[in-house]
């Protein structure tokens, strides 16, 4: 509970449908903090993490505009566990700080009791897990995830699989789930599950 507001963690593997759930929650008026978008901020020029990343991974990951090419960086870290750990050590502290600031800003003007959602792929692995009043896990069939990731990110099957393998397996997230949202491919069915979870959340908090 954050200043009288339930904090709900929304997580799941890459390309499982988290973003669709988060977008629907926003449409219904619920505030959603997106950890990935916060992560984009810490990668921008002028940020301490930006300089540390260049020192660690070299200037070969920069675009012509001196911005970090996230795809180039991803090609490094998704195939190298040590490199991924180095990146996490650099980025996680400033990401956590920015998320704290956003959470404080949100809870300062929201009506008391209104839930705040935190969308984060690495929620289970992070300190935020213990802060959440509920954790919602989005799942999807493995073949569907692989296909969606290939199409969405223009990746080969091997590249897509390496990104999937870099995260927790779905089975490893489920023990932490208060709510499981099963994405079988039909958006309407997924959103019906979200509505049910929201109704149950309201009952629980009241």
Structural class of the secondary structure composition? alpha/beta
> Total strand count, please?
5
Q: Compute the separation of the termini in Å.
A: 13 Å
Which word captures the global form?
globular
Which ranges are low-confidence, i.e. pLDDT below 50, for 5 or more consecutive residues? none
SSE run: EHEHHHHEEHHHEH
Tell me the strand percentage band: 5-15%
Give the second-level CATH assignment, the architecture of the largest domain: 3-Layer(aba) Sandwich
Kindly identify the CATH topology of the largest domain.
Rossmann fold
What is the overall pLDDT average? 92
Number of helices: 9
CATH H-tier superfamily of the largest domain: P-loop containing nucleotide triphosphate hydrolases
Q: How many separate structural domains?
A: 2
Radius of gyration: 18 Å
Fraction of residues in H or I helices: 40-55%
Q: Going across the major beta sheet, what is the strand order?
A: 2-3-1-4-5
Description:
The structure is a single chain. The protein has 206 residues and is an alpha/beta fold. It folds into 2 domains: 1-31 and 115-206, Rossmann fold, CATH 3.40.50.300; 37-109, P-loop containing nucleotide triphosphate hydrolases (Rossmann fold, 3-Layer(aba) Sandwich). Helices cover 53% and strands 11% of the residues. A 5-stranded parallel sheet has the order 2-3-1-4-5, with helices on both faces. The mean pLDDT is 92.
């Amino acid at each position: 509970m954050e200043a009288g507001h339930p904090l709900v963690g929304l997580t799941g593997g890459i390309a499982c449908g988290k973003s669709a759930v988060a977008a629907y929650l926003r449409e219904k008026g619920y505030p959603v903090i997106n950890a990935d978008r916060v992560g984009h901020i810490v990668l921008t020029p002028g940020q301490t993490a930006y300089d540390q990343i260049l020192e660690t991974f070299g200037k070969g990951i920069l675009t012509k505009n001196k911005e970090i090419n996230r795809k180039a960086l991803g090609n490094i870290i998704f195939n190298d566990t040590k490199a991924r750990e180095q990146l996490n050590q650099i980025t996680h502290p400033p990401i956590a700080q920015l998320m704290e600031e956003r959470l404080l800003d949100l809870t300062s003007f929201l009506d008391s009791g209104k839930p705040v959602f935190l969308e984060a792929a690495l929620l289970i692995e992070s300190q935020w897990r213990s802060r959440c009043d509920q954790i919602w896990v989005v799942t999807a069939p493995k073949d569907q995830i692989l296909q969606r990731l290939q199409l969405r990110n223009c990746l080969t099957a091997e590249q897509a699989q390496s990104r999937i393998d870099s995260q927790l397996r779905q089975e490893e997230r489920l023990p932490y789930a208060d709510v499981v949202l099963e994405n079988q491919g039909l958006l309407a069915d997924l959103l019906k599950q979200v509505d049910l979870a929201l109704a149950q959340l309201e009952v629980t908090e009241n």
